[in-house]
Amino acid sequence: MTYKIPRVVIAGLRGGSGKTTLSVSLCRALTASGRSVTAFKKGPDYIDAGWLSKATGRDCFNLDTYLIPPELVFNSFVYHTRGSDIAVVEGNRGLFDGVDAGGTFSTAELSKELKAPVLLVVDCTKTTTTIAALLKGAASFDPEVNIAGVILNNIAGKRHEMVIREAIREYTPLEVVGSVRKLSDIDMIERHMGLKPYHEHRDVEGVIERLTEQVLKGIELERIVEIASKAPELTCEENPDPYERRDSPQRVTIGVIRDRAFQFYYPENLNALKGLGADLIEIDATTMKELPDVDGLYIGGGFPETNALLLSENRSFMKELKEQVEAGLPLYAECGGLMYLGQYIEFQGKRYEMTGILPMGFILHERPVAHGYTVVEVVRDNPFYPRGTVIKGHEFHYSAPKGYNQDIGFAFKMLRGKGVGNAMDGIVYKNVLATYTHVHTFGTPQWAKALVSASLRYRDERGCKR
């Protein structure tokens, strides 16, 4: 079947060029105009996606071409844009940057897969005609990539903008569809992993509104919509649903710790659990005194270090969580969730007690300990994956384990990436698997099925004992 959806990819010449600022503003402006907008993020990222979801009022989905097979990237895009008026895809890094010199898994390759026009955001700080030279190279680098417009970012003033626009007209075939002055009074604070998550911000709506107001002064919104509307029809399956469904009366309850400390969840992962028969309960580990009655638990990544005081003070919750783990509760933890299961977190010279489930502590460093894609092989029995399974994922952490026994059980051998250490990851304890590696359900479909199955077993075992 054929499918028509206006769409645009927001890309840059490098990371930090202003893609997120423009994408968030564009999504909010389009939403405010009465359009139904679906946002996507290319690359392993939770924080930018969170801001995009707040800008549209809807989930932001991931289109990472390394983690997810191409056919599922395409099907996910089609499926999640049904009923939308327009789709906005924020790229990552530079337009042609991938995992190798050939640009494999780049934003450019994704734009070709989706047949989507590209808006290129260019940081113009302290430069003029050189911008035209860079754009001329980008325009001719891959003729199959449709760079349909340019947005000039960090413009110092009228003359600065005039010279750059004249150079682009003279030396390139590209159209300028907007310019953004250096922003002022915008508090999208950055820290060690990029932007501060919206969960920790005092005034999310105010920030997005002020940002959008300033950006809208210089961009041609309706021209961008026109460019997006010229994207060609896509040929897709009659039913592009990328999720596996299970029609079963046997439902389980899975808790998801989702609060200011733990926010790193792909909405696709949560949808996958629901599709397989799970009812999800959101849990706040910073305020709730008791763990709700659940058959399984999922703790994603986040910033437990910056919320360590709140977590450590909630002793009753941590005590009950540890008791439930000892009783066999299935628990899957990623990155920040792994840290929460340790004995303590050391951050900025202070030590904060954590759940004490795993025999190790964690210390935060000033520089990244690991950052990038991972590949792991399952080499030990565990509650979730069979031996021999190979999994693609990603990791980004400033923390490192401290004071643990080298004989601890690891399920994952690192074929790519760092993990916990010594080329190992995936700590196994009872029905717990805790890892630095984040997974996406479309690239690792075993994950959701395994968590639901483990929760079913635990539910049935508890029922027999009652």
Give a quick precis of the structure.
Helices cover 31% and strands 27% of the residues.
From the structure above, extract its key features.
466 residues, alpha/beta, Rossmann fold, 2 domains
Structural commentary:
This protein has helices spanning 19-32, 47-56, 70-80, 107-114, 129-141, 158-171, 204-216, 221-229, 267-275, 308-313, 315-326, 336-340, 446-465; strands at residues 2-3, 7-12, 37-41, 61-62, 86-94, 118-123, 147-155, 176-181, 190-191, 194-195, 234-235, 252-257, 262-264, 278-283, 296-299, 301-302, 331-334, 344-347, 350-353, 361-364, 370-378, 390-397, 399-402, 410-416, 424-429, 432-435. With 466 residues, it is of the alpha/beta class. The protein has a 9-stranded mixed beta sheet with strand order 14-12-15-17-26-25-24-21-22. It is globular, with a radius of gyration of 23 Å. 51% of the residues are buried. Residues 189-193 have low confidence and may be disordered.
* Structural class computed from helices and strand pairing: alpha/beta
- Sheet with the most strands? 9 strands, mixed
> CATH superfamily of the largest domain, called what?
P-loop containing nucleotide triphosphate hydrolases
Radius of gyration: 23 Å
Shape: globular
- Residue windows where pLDDT falls under 50 for at least 5 positions: 189-193
Strand content: 25-35%
Share of helix among residues?
25-40%
Write the layout of secondary structure elements.
Elements: E1 2-3, E2 7-12, H1 19-32, E3 37-41, H2 47-56, E4 61-62, H3 70-80, E5 86-94, H4 107-114, E6 118-123, H5 129-141, E7 147-155, H6 158-171, E8 176-181, E9 190-191, E10 194-195, H7 204-216, H8 221-229, E11 234-235, E12 252-257, E13 262-264, H9 267-275, E14 278-283, E15 296-299, E16 301-302, H10 308-313, H11 315-326, E17 331-334, H12 336-340, E18 344-347, E19 350-353, E20 361-364, E21 370-378, E22 390-397, E23 399-402, E24 410-416, E25 424-429, E26 432-435, H13 446-465
Parallel strand pairs: 2-5, 2-6, 3-4, 3-5, 6-7, 7-8, 12-14, 12-15, 15-17, 17-26, 18-20
Antiparallel strand pairs: 1-11, 9-10, 13-16, 18-19, 20-23, 21-22, 21-24, 24-25, 25-26
